[in-house]
Specification:
By secondary structure, the protein is mainly β. It has one domain. Strands 1, 2, 3, 4 and 5 form a 5-stranded antiparallel β-sheet that branches.
Length: 68
């Protein structure tokens, strides 16, 4: 595989949207946090890519709580 396609659901009703395609195994999501004092649950999933095409199966969904 030559890259990883990352998707995130930030709980805004839009569902999963593409976050990035990266070759960095230590990718950090630098998206803005919710407004101060507001919490949210963000969900992530990923799939490998090879020659600009998705390969294999989606990962399990990883969930994290964030606070603005």
């Amino acid at each position: 595989m030559d890259s990883l396609e990352l998707w995130r659901d930030c709980g805004d009703g839009k569902g999963f949207v593409q976050l990035n395609i990266t070759t960095n195994p230590d990718y950090a999501d630098i998206s803005p946090l919710p407004a101060p004092g507001i919490s949210a649950v963000w969900k992530y999933k990923a799939i490998y890519r090879l020659n600009d095409a998705q390969v294999g199966q989606w990962s399990d969904v990883a969930t994290i709580g964030v606070m603005g």
